[in-house]
Amino acid sequence: MHPVSLHADEVYASAQSAAASSPVVASWRRCMVMHHLAPEQERTPERLTDSEFRQTRQASERLIVEAREEMDKLFSTVGKSGCCLLLTDRNGVALERRGTAGDDRAFHDLGLWTAAIWTEASIGTNGIGTALADERAVSIFRDQHFFSSNTGLCCTTAPIRDHRGEVAAALDISTCRDDVNEMVLSILAQTVRDAALRIELNLFRSAFPGARFLIVPHAAHAAAALLAVDRNDLVIGATRAARLALALDDNRIAAGIPAADALDENRAGDRQDLVEAERAALMRALSRANGNVSQAAIALGMSRATLHRKMNRFGLH
Length: 317
Known about the structure:
Elements: H1 3-15, H2 23-33, E1 46-47, H3 50-59, H4 61-78, E2 83-89, E3 94-98, H5 104-110, E4 116-117, H6 120-123, H7 127-134, E5 138-141, E6 154-161, E7 167-175, H8 182-207, E8 212-215, E9 226-229, E10 235-238, H9 240-246, H10 250-255, H11 259-262, H12 270-288, H13 293-300, H14 304-314
Antiparallel strand pairs: 1-4, 2-3, 2-7, 5-6, 6-7, 8-9, 9-10
Helix pairs in contact: 1-2, 4-8, 12-13, 13-14
């Protein structure tokens, strides 16, 4: 039997079984039931018009800016091995691409190009579309793709979340090299997840200019668990990892929760907070004045004698 027919038969049989046995089979079923696709079809992704693509890029300008450097670094690592990089928006539209000239024709023919739409509805089960649908990192190895025409492709994708923890984009590494095995793909998967996380953190920091950023130490993924805190030590933003670790949502953040309360730090109460805040202010002023009491007093708007009394009170001599 022809390989195309064999693959199509497997997709039909698996997708029509009583229960989805894996995320891939669940995706195959969505492609058939929700999107009315047939695995034996030969097709490339749908594409935006030039004007539509310009508008889409403009809407994702901050994402593109924050991702550009990470994409360049990632491509310098994997580009010479025959890999193509795509950055898409939340709708699977390829906004940015990295690839070597020698591989361009093959990737262009597959639709791995800017303005292409890599959703499950457009091109069936694939790394980008399935990662966006499942909101998790995904690797699709050759015949795990829905369409028989894509079974020579290997791709691994990680979603990128915005400052509210919502999926905003996806970063993908794809290759059509014959010698790529599942172990190599798993290494690429970790690489793309790390790069996606760095882009996610870049987006988070840029969303809160002037804020301080605190790591949530007891989170499952501490490197990804950040709080944005204003000058009053109120939480004004939290990454998804921080939200999960601290049970935060938009309503709690909008209500104004102190960082110490969010982190469940032991506090003696508001009065003690006020004392500690005053002590910290004195220490900062003295530090900025390199220990010169007169200069620190001027900066604080108090007399030298008053500052000395406060220093004695807090044991700062």
